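Quick start: load a record and inspect it. Here is HXXEE domain-containing protein:
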Amino acid sequence: MIFLLVSVAVFNLAAILIPKNISWIEIYGTILISIVLHLLIDTFLDLKYDLYGYFDKGVDFKTLIFTFGIYPAVNIIIVNLYPLVHGILSKSLYILILTIFALSYEVALLNVNIFYHNEWRLWYSAIVYPFLLILLFLNRKLLKRLLN
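Running the structure step on this input writes:
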């Protein structure tokens, strides 16, 4: 649990302190989409199909630490640092680095028994993470378009 609370503090401090390249409405939209995606995906993959989970099987209030403490901050950082003006190679490299980071963080959570896998495999996450990241970037693009 200490690992998780330190993660919340570090990610939120980073999200607050980094220079912002995104507007407040983009921050708000990123927070909302990250919470919705987390709840939607975990409702099915965790609760319905029991492929993985946080802490103990079933609904657990401690999981809300991820919902409100980790995902919004991490996604703000990710969207804020996205290389908008660079080419496809830079963007692909950014997604690859983030995927490796997310996989490493998932392994760390597995090792401290905060997260567990049942039928889920780490390579499933390796496939899913890039798509979730692209979805975040498309959400930012939509928000920018709606603002204009």
